[in-house]
Each structure stands twice: as C-alpha cells, then as structure tokens.
Amino acid sequence: MSEPFLDLGIVWTLLGGFSVMWIVLGIVWSRKSKGTAGYLFAGRNVGLALVTATLMATWVTGNTVLAAPEAAYTLGLWGMLGYTFAGFGLFLFAPLAVRIKKLMPNGFTSGDFIRMRYGRTAWVIFFAISAVYFGGLFITVGMGAGLLLESLSGIDYRVGMLLVVVVTTIYTLLGGMRAVIGMDFIQAMLIMISLIAVAFLVYNTFGIQQIYEGLEENKPQALNLLLPAGLLYAWNTGLMSMGEVCHSNLWWMRAYASRPTINFRGFMLSGVIWMTVPLTTGAIALAALALPEEFVIEQVNMVFPVVASTLLGKVGAALVLIIVFAALASTLSSLLTTTAAAFTQDIYRQFQNPKANDDQIRKVSRLWVGILAGATILLSWNYVTSLYQILLFTGALVGSTVWPVCAGLYWKRANGKSAFLAMLLGSVSGLSFYFLVSSFAAALIGFIVSALVTVVGTAVSKTEFQWSTLQAAGTIEQEIMK
Amino acid sequence: MTELITPYWLFASLIWVAIGTMSAGTLFLMGIFIREKIKNTLW
C-alpha cells in the first residue's frame, strides 16, 4: 500500500470533529421528527433545496469521487463524460416521481406499488431483486468506507468501516429521514465547495491550454471522441443507472417525501448538479494525465487525492478526506432509512401486524436500522471480492425491473403475469449472461428480455387497472381492501 | 482506428462548463435554501 496522505492526528481530528457534529445535528433534528411521516418521510412536504441536495448527495458515493477520476485517467475525455451518463437515471425518474406522488400520495415503498399494481407473486420476485441489490449496495458502501479511509488516511480497514457505519447509524436512528436529508444538504455543500476549490486551483495553476497540449503530446487517445471503449463505457453506465434508480426504494421514498409541486424540478436539477461531480473530478484527473512530470500516480484510483495533495499539500488531502467521508455517510444513511422502511412496510405490516399503529411502525423501523447496520458490519468485516463485480452482479437483476415499473405507472393494461415473467426471465437471462458470457452487458440483456416480455404481455392483455386503487397505498384501508 | 480528436475550444468549453455549472449549482442551492428558510418552506 502507498503512503497515506495525512498524519493520523489530523485524520482523527477531522473524522472525530465531523462525527460529533453529525451526531449532535441528528439529536437536534430528532426533536422535530414527529410520527411515522416525520421519521420516515420528513413530513412528506420537503422543499426544493433539500430535495435537490439529498438526491444529489445520495447519488454521490465514494465511487463517484474516486472511480470517476480513475475512469478519466484511464479512458481520457470519454471516461470523464461516460461517468456523467449515470445522471440519466435521475432524469428518467423525474417524470416517474411526479406520477408516483400523484398516484400514491401516502405510499411507503416501491414494494407498495408492485404489490398493489401486480399482486403478491410479482411482489415476491421484486422484493427478492431489491433485497439482493440493497445487500450488494450495503456491502460495497461498507467495504468502500474501510478501503477508502485506509488508503487516504492509513487507519485500519475495520476501524474506518466501523467509524462510518456507527456514526451514520447513530444519526439515522435518532433523526430518521429528517436527519438524513438535513445532513445530505450539508454533505452536498461540503462536496461541491471542496471540489470547486481543487478544480479551480488545478486549472488556474497550469491553464487549460497547457493541459490540452500535455494531453496531445503524452496521451492523444485521451482526446479521441470516437474511442470505442469510452463509448461502450458511457452507454453501459447510463443504462445501469436507469435500472438502479427505477426500482430502488431510495428514490421512491424521496418522491413520497417531497412536496408534489417540486418533485420534477428536484430530480432534474439534482441530475444536472450531480453530473458536474464526475465532470469536475474527471477534469482534475485529466491534468494528471497531461502532466506526468507534475503528478506521480502509483495507484489509478488515487489520482484525485494525489492531485489535490500535490497542489494543496495537507489541506488538499484533508479536503479529499472530508469529501469521501461525507459521500459515504450520505449514501449509507439513505440506504439505512429506505431499506428499514421497506422491511417495516413490506414484511412487518404485510405479514406480522397489518394494523400496526404509528408508534409501532416507528419502533420497528428503528429496529431495522440497527439490524441492517449490524449486518453491514458483519458482511463487510473481511474484504473478499471486487466491489465493481458486486455492482455488476446486482445490475444483472435490476435491469429487469425498469419495464414492469414504467409500464405499471403509465399503462392500464400492464398486468401481474407479464410483470412477474418479465422480472423472472429478465433476471435469469441477465444472470446467465453475467456468468456465461460477460458481466459488463448483463444489465442490458436483463433490460431487453424484460422489455420484450412486458410489451408483448401487455399488448395481448384485456384487463384494465383502476388507478384509483393505488390511492390507498400506505394506509390501513389498503389491508382492508385486500 | 477512426479518430476524432477533440478541438481545443471544445475541451476548454467542457472544463469551464463543468466547473462553472458546479459553482452555479452550489450558489443556486444556497440561494434556494435561504429563500425557503425565510419563507419557512424548507420542510
């Protein structure tokens, strides 16, 4: 392993200071979090500033900060542009979010929609896909936290992982969605201001002209707009992001939590602002690629910290550490709240206690936050596999959910049988492709097979769904109706 | 292999769009936050 960028004393001061600040804010916000709607949906009336920031911060993971510059360093301009295609997932979801909030103003989860729209059989497979996806995400965030903090600061893998999981769990347990969204705003600001500072300094120090000429001289392929590997990378990234966003309770719960009038703008704006993160970190990485004599890159995934610490010394390294810590915490806290809500609504309320009162729902949600945090620690205790392979594996499954979700929201004749078959056959095809042919296009195969089954199954169907049925989502009436 | 090397003006525009949009986005979010805080419409 290469030398850490910061002394341990500075690392612990920074991490300790931010941890204490986040926990204190969690305590403050917990006082304003009333009832289940307050705890899980921050009151269901969140405004534009907080919605945009929380969407953006949740989508910025440790990967966005370190893997996006790595892509630019490896593939050049298309690596930088390709990563930004993941923002299309948020654009696609903008109109869906409006529709979701309109059809199910009191909805809890994405599982609510699938169960009421398509029935329990389709819901079982949807829930299984979601569980695998979120399991993979928890592992990548937990392991990512340990690995990134170890690389940046030299602290032990398990200590770094535990710190991120424990601090995040405490403020999530205390303040619920309100604390998560409030903290996301602060974390989004930290990420953006730090990135602007580093990027501005890089291009002010060397100038765009010098960096462009350096690329022309040292790595002309980095400027090739027709680079096949880059184009393929961009296409895959965009498609996988659509699969990830479409089915995921992370985004559905934010649609439920936001004010109906700002849902569309919030998702579109967050997509635009999010895209500037890989663009800016990629632009920083291009400077390292153009000027090899200025920056010594030993590990490609550390290109961003190397550039920041070379130009800004310890301040630069500290900024990167803050960005990464904030990105990890914002993603993990969102995962904890939304997955806890899914287990509470889709398992506890459906099978154990359909008439659970407000207090019971909140208590069970908190219990699930704790259980999920414990599971994350256990599953991430040993670093055993490639994080990217885990993401690609989950991509093989989630690609099959895009069409059943979209068709179910807009097409009256979309039905349970075709949705079930689309997700089943899409997942089987995606997984077969993942294991037998290539892991990179598995999401695409799942997406195509599921599209064919959904379209054919819907076209031949004669049943028509009554949209008004969905209005009862999340309420006790939903159970009575069943 | 087919090549289309990015011209300087496009490269420079991309860099400025990236840094400029992020700066504008940050200011915009701060502005909206303050406005919603004053109007008590944050939550």
Summarize the SSE layout with pairings.
The complex is a heterodimer of chains A (482) and B (43).
Chain A: H1 8-30, H2 35-41, H3 48-59, H4 62-75, H5 77-84, H6 88-103, H7 110-118, H8 120-153, H9 157-206, H10 208-218, H11 228-247, H12 249-257, H13 263-290, H14 303-352, H15 358-380, H16 387-398, H17 402-410, H18 416-436, H19 442-459, H20 476-481
Chain B: H1 8-38
Provide structural commentary.
The complex is a heterodimer of chains A (482) and B (43). With 482 residues, chain A is mainly α. Chain A is 79% helix and 0% strand. By secondary structure, chain B is mainly α. Chain B has one helix at 8-38. The A-B interface holds A 42-43, 45-50, 52-53, 77, 81, 178, 185, 188-189, 192-193, 195-196, 199-200, 203, 208-209, 212, 216, 220, 223-226, 228, 269, 272-273, 275-277, 279-280, 282-283 and B 1-6, 8, 11-12, 14-19, 21-23, 25-26, 28-30, 32-33, 35-36, 41-43.
Fraction of residues in H or I helices of chain A: over 70%
Relative helix content of chain B: over 70%
Beta strands of chain B, count? 0
List the quaternary state of the chains.
heterodimer
Biggest sheet descriptor of chain A? none
Distance between the termini of chain B: 55 Å
Q: Between the first and last Cα atoms of chain A, what is the distance in angstroms?
A: 57 Å
Uncertain spans of chain A, ≥5 residues at pLDDT below 50?
Answer: none
Profile the largest sheet of chain B. Answer: none
Q: Give the overall average pLDDT of chain B.
A: 91
Spans of chain B of at least 5 consecutive residues whose pLDDT stays below 50 are none
Give the chain pair forming the largest contact, with residue counts: A-B, 43 and 30 residues
Number of helices of chain A: 20
Query: Strand fraction band of chain A?
Result: under 5%
Helix and strand run of chain A: HHHHHHHHHHHHHHHHHHHH
Q: What structural class should be given to the helix and strand makeup of chain B?
A: mainly alpha
